[in-house]
Design brief:
Number of helices: 1
Radius of gyration: 34 Å
Helix content: under 10%
Oligomer: single chain
Shape: elongated
Mean pLDDT: 78
Largest sheet: 8 strands, mixed
Distance between the termini: 41 Å
Strand content: 35-45%
Length: about 475
C-alpha cells in the first residue's frame, strides 16, 4: 500500500549562472538570485489518511478531535542513506498547531518549505505521536526518544527504523495523554512539491448493540478479543511472532436498554490485526454472558470496524420423557435429538415412548418470564393424552396413553416475550424403539432430555457477529 501523492513539476530549468528555486505550485520559477550551488527548495505537505466515508472533523466523517497529529517529525534521507534533513515540526509553533480549544491531537495538516536540498531521489520518513510507543524488545526508550536522537548527517540504517515492530501501540490511547501513533515511508524527488499521507497504526471499532429481546435488558460490560499484540512500523513490512491475545473491555456500563432501543459503546482503538480467526465478542447482560464471533478476521491499520450487534431472544423448548416400569429401577429414555432452527410455521414433531409422563419447559436466550398456553388440538382425545399441570405453567406436565402408533397434537400460543404459536405433534412408539438403560445409582425417575427446539420465527443475528450463545 502506498500512502504518497507526489506532485512534481513537469519541467525544470537548469541555469548555469543562477540557482534553481522551486515554488509550492506545479512550476519552477527563477528568482534571479546569485545562487550557483545547485541546491533547491522542497515544499512538503503532510496530512492524515482519510477513511472512505463522508466528511466531518478534519475532513473525515469518522474522525474526531484528537485523532490527528500532536507531534510531528520528518526525515529526508538521500540515495546514499544519509539523513539530509530533519524537520521537527512540533517546534514550528507558527505552522504546526496541534491544540484546538484545549484539546491536543488536532493538527490535520502541516506544510513547510525546506531550503538547501540537493537534487535527487529521496526517501521520506514521517512520524507522529511516537512519544508513548515502544519497539518490541525495548521497554525503556520510546520510539519518539529514538527519533529525537537521530541527527542530520547520520546514517539512517544505523538505527534500524525500517524494520521496527511496535509493541501494542493501541494500548492506552485516550486522545489526551496518548495519541494515535502514525507513520509513512515514501520515495520521491527532492525537488518541487511532495504530499505525504500519514497512516494510523491502529484500527478503530465502533460497536453498538440493538435490543430485540422482547423486554428491557441491563448491559453490564463488553469485551472484544483476539487482537494482535504488535504491528510493523511501516505497513510494507510484516511483523513476526504475533500473538493474538489482546482484548478490550468496557466495564461498569450499567445501562438499562429498552426493547427496540440501541446502545452505542464508546469507540475504542485496537492494533492492526491480520489474522485467520474471527474476533470474539462477549456482552454481559443481566446475570448472563452472551457471546458471538465476527465474520471478519482482519482489521487493517487506519480502518474502522462498524460492529453492529443485535441481541435477539429465541425461544427454546425442552421435552423430557420419564418411564419407571414396575419392579425395576427407573430407566432413561432417549426421546429425540435435534437442534435445527425452526423457521416459518412453528410446528414441532417428536417421538415419545408409549405410557410415559412428560414435561415441556420453555426458556429464552435472555432470562425472562414466558407467558404461554397449551391445549389439546381438535381430533386429539383426552383419553390418549392429558395435561396434568396448569395449561399456562412452565413447565407443563402430562402423560401419554400406553398405546403405540398414536399421533397426538397440542396447540401452543406464546404471548411473551414474543408472540409465536404453533403445534407440537407427538407420535407414540413402543419402548423397544428407544435407547433404554437401567440406572443403579438413583431412585429418582431418570430421563434423557431432547435437544433444544427453537421457536424463533426468524433467525436473530448480528449484522457482523454471529448469534449470541449462552455461556
Amino acid at each position: 500500500m502506498k500512502y504518497i501523492k507526489q506532485f512534481i513539476s513537469e519541467y525544470s530549468l537548469l541555469l548555469l549562472l543562477f540557482g534553481l528555486v522551486s515554488c509550492s505550485g506545479d512550476d519552477y520559477e527563477d528568482k534571479g538570485d546569485d545562487k550557483d550551488d545547485g541546491l533547491v527548495s522542497l515544499t512538503i505537505n503532510i496530512g492524515t489518511e482519510d477513511t472512505s466515508e463522508t466528511r466531518a472533523y478534519g475532513g473525515d466523517s469518522n474522525a474526531e478531535a484528537g485523532e490527528f497529529m500532536n507531534t510531528l517529525v520528518i526525515f529526508i534521507v538521500n540515495s546514499d542513506g544519509y539523513v539530509e534533513k530533519k524537520i521537527n515540526a512540533t517546534t514550528d509553533t507558527e505552522n504546526f498547531t496541534p491544540t484546538v480549544s484545549g484539546k491536543g491531537g488536532c493538527a490535520t495538516s502541516y506544510t513547510t518549505t525546506v531550503e538547501g536540498i540537493i537534487p535527487g531521489t529521496k526517501t521520506f520518513y514521517v512520524f507522529s505521536n511516537m512519544d508513548n510507543v515502544y519497539a518490541v524488545g525495548n521497554t525503556s526508550t520510546t520510539i519518539g526518544d529514538v527519533l529525537s536522537g537521530i541527527k542530520e548527517g547520520g546514517t539512517w540504517s544505523t538505527y534500524g527504523i525500517d524494520s521496527y515492530v511496535v509493541s501494542n501501540p493501541a494500548d492506552g490511547i485516550d486522545l489526551s495523554t496518548k495519541f494515535i501513533p502514525m507513520s509513512v515511508k515514501a520515495t520521491g524527488s527532492g525537488t518541487g512539491t511532495i504530499s505525504l499521507t500519514l497512516v494510523r497504526l491502529v484500527s478503530k471499532v465502533n460497536a453498538s448493540l440493538a435490543n430485540n429481546s422482547g423486554g428491557d435488558i441491563t448491559i453490564n460490560s463488553f469485551t472484544m478479543s483476539s487482537f494482535a499484540d504488535r504491528v510493523s512500523l511501516f505497513d510494507e513490512y510484516a511483523a513476526t511472532d504475533i500473538v493474538y491475545d489482546k482484548s478490550y473491555t468496557i466495564s461498569n456500563i450499567s445501562k438499562t436498554l429498552a426493547n427496540g432501543a440501541t446502545h452505542t459503546f464508546e469507540p475504542f482503538y485496537r492494533n492492526e490485526t491480520k489474522g485467520t480467526s474471527p474476533f470474539t465478542v462477549e456482552v454481559s447482560v443481566g446475570d448472563q454472558t452472551m457471546t458471538g464471533t465476527t465474520s471478519t478476521t482482519s482489521i487493517e491499520r487506519n480502518s474502522i470496524l462498524p460492529l453492529a450487534m443485535t441481541l435477539g431472544n429465541e425461544l427454546y423448548l425442552t421435552i423430557n420423557a420419564y418411564i419407571a416400569p414396575i419392579g425395576v429401577l427407573p430407566i432413561t429414555v432417549y426421546a429425540k435429538s435435534t437442534s435445527d432452527l425452526i423457521t416459518g410455521e412453528q410446528n414441532i414433531s417428536v417421538e415419545l415412548p408409549e405410557g410415559c409422563t412428560f414435561s415441556i419447559e420453555g426458556s429464552t436466550q435472555v432470562t425472562q418470564d414466558i407467558a404461554w398456553n397449551w391445549v389439546l388440538a381438535d381430533g386429539t382425545s383426552a383419553q390418549d393424552i392429558q395435561i396434568t399441570s396448569a395449561a399456562t405453567a412452565n413447565p407443563i406436565e402430562g402423560y401419554i396413553t400406553a398405546v403405540s402408533g398414536k399421533t397426538l397434537t397440542l396447540n401452543y400460543s406464546v404471548t411473551s416475550p414474543k408472540t409465536v404459536s404453533g403445534t407440537l405433534t407427538i407420535t407414540t412408539k413402543g419402548l423397544e424403539d428407544f435407547d433404554i438403560t437401567q440406572s443403579s445409582s438413583s431412585s429418582a425417575p431418570m430421563f434423557r432430555s431432547s435437544s433444544l427446539f427453537r421457536w424463533c420465527a426468524e433467525p436473530s443475528r448480528y449484522e457482523l457477529v454471529n448469534l449470541f450463545d449462552m455461556k
